[in-house]
Design goal:
Layout (H helix, E strand, L loop, with lengths): L2 H18 L4 H14 L2 E2 L2 E2 L15 E2 L10 H16 L1 H23 L7 E4 L2 H11 L7 E5 L4 H14 L2 E5 L8 H11 L4 E7 L11 H10 L3 E5 L11 H4 L3 E5 L11 E5 L1 H4 L23 H17 L1 H19 L5 E3 L11 E6 L4 H10 L2 E2 L1 E3 L4 E5 L6 H13 L4
Parallel strand pairs: 3-13, 5-6, 5-7, 7-8, 8-9
Antiparallel strand pairs: 1-2, 4-10, 9-10, 11-12, 12-15, 14-15
Helix pairs in contact: 1-2, 1-11, 3-4, 3-11, 4-11, 5-6, 12-14
Bound molecules: pyridoxal-5'-phosphate (PLP).
Length: 416
């Protein structure tokens, strides 16, 4: 489908959504107009500088922390808000006769967005919840081993830790501090640590600490060879990188849509490969035992409808274009930051491991203090305490000028 046909389809979808929600005509037009504006091209390219104005971000901020929380597009915010207002007029009827169906359409749309089948995806509130469900579902026993890394976010491992405490299973952490490794070398580290007791490999798609993109396809081959369950913490990927869970080959994939997907806060996707659904404890029971439906009890329907709007928005821009833009901006940030003598870049050396996040460590000061000083100037970064480092996220509402402002502020701070 060409881009124009896609846009038309998305606009029709929005119009249908608006009609279903009895939204005022003006808002419907507003959405369409906003979407056309997002879609503005110059010289055949998207005008990325226009994206920022489609968010509600404070104009004065240099917001470089999508890895913690992304900014909702104005249009997504409005769909969510209007849906909520509509719901509150007649909660039981609007919620359970109408929005439950719209929300389930959004869930199916989310499945397609990450390359899954419709009956392989459940909505969650976030990655932590999805990873917890999976840790409970796999069925571990005493002395079983879960292979993971020393760079996992607490939300991705807390479920495994709990299961270990309950069953006597063990977490085995692989050291990923060395940024110079190739994807193949990383996989070899995992291969070397597999024992007859290993049951699971659980890793992030993109490490929250350094932004290193893990070689999931290669790890999934390894997992298949040894009949291990591969659980992926995808908090940092959908909306930043194109994600196709079938191509990745993992067994489960948990993500947070309130980061790079720019969906309402408290929304996440959980994928569980169909072949695995019979082998693990059902993770999201609905009425009866149909696990993969939005009908898992009462939900925040407006947020789920907003989730669908966020995916519409990204589809219009194109996940491939978004990935290319995000990586280019991250590379620009890398090149400018690498010119400072007094900092150590923590970016992977192999470009196949790049993502839209990078980290650096100022060697002559506490990085926490530096992040706080930048925050006072309206430059929002993330401190990574375990590495005494700073993380920079570059999303599509950022541009080169944001990086330039960061560099100027660093120079003014006396960093050489
Ligand atoms: C890799 C990773 N996993 C899990 C989480 C937790 O995300 P959430 O709070 O949305 O569950 C984060 C948050 O930054 C993360 O980066």
């Amino acid at each position: 489908m060409n881009r124009r046909a896609f846009l038309n389809q998305a606009l029709k979808h929005l119009a249908a959504l608006s009609a279903a929600l009895a939204l005022p005509e003006s808002l419907t037009e507003g959405h369409a107009h906003a979407l056309r504006r997002h879609y503005r091209y110059s010289h055949g390219e998207i005008d990325w500088h226009a994206i920022r104005r489609q968010t509600l971000l404070d104009e004065k901020l240099v917001y470089l922390n999508t890895g913690t929380l992304g900014a909702c597009p104005r249009h997504v915010f409005e769909v969510t808000q209007k849906t909520w207002e509509h719901l509150e007029r007649n909660p039981a009827i609007v919620g359970f006769r109408e929005l439950i169906h719209t929300a389930d359409e959004a869930r199916k749309q989310a499945a397609r967005f990450i390359g899954a089948d419709e009956d392989e995806v459940a909505f969650t509130q976030n990655t932590t919840e999805g990873m917890n469900w999976i840790a409970q579902a796999v069925g571990l026993h005493q002395d079983d081993e879960i292979l993971t890394t020393n760079h996992e976010h607490p939300g991705g491992v807390v479920g495994w830790k709990y299961v270990c405490q309950q069953t006597g299973a063990r977490l085995v952490r692989i050291d990923l501090n060395d940024q110079s490794r190739t994807p193949e070398e990383i996989v070899a580290l995992f291969r070397d640590r597999i024992t007859p007791r290993t049951r699971v490999i659980s890793v992030s798609h993109v490490l929250f600490s350094t932004g290193l993109r893990m070689p999931i396809e290669l790890l999934s081959q390894l997992a298949r060879e040894h009949e291990l369950f591969l659980a992926v913490d995808g908090a940092q990927a959908p909306g930043m990188l194109r994600v196709d869970v079938h191509a990745l080959g993992c067994d489960s994939y948990a993500s947070s849509s309130h980061k790079w997907l720019m969906a309402p806060k408290g929304s996440g996707i959980l994928y569980l490969r169909k072949a695995m659904q019979k082998r693990v404890v059902p993770v999201a029971l609905a009425a009866g035992f149909g696990a993969y439906t939005a009908n898992t009890g009462t939900r925040h329907f407006p947020g789920l409808v907003g989730h669908g709007a966020a995916i519409d928005w990204q589809q219009i821009l194109g996940p491939e274009r978004i990935e290319t833009r995000v990586l280019a901006l991250s590379r620009y940030a890398y090149e400018r930051l690498a010119a400072f003598q007094s900092l150590r870049m923590l970016r992977p050396r192999d470009v196949r491991l790049d993502s839209g996040m990078l980290a650096f460590a100022l060697t002559d000061r506490r990085n926490r203090d530096f992040v706080a000083a930048m925050q006072k100037q309206g430059i929002v970064l993330k401190v990574v305490p375990m590495l005494n480092a700073v993380r920079v996220s570059t999303h599509i509402y950022n541009d080169e000028r944001d990086i330039d402002r960061l560099i100027a502020a660093m120079q003014a701070e006396g960093i050489r």
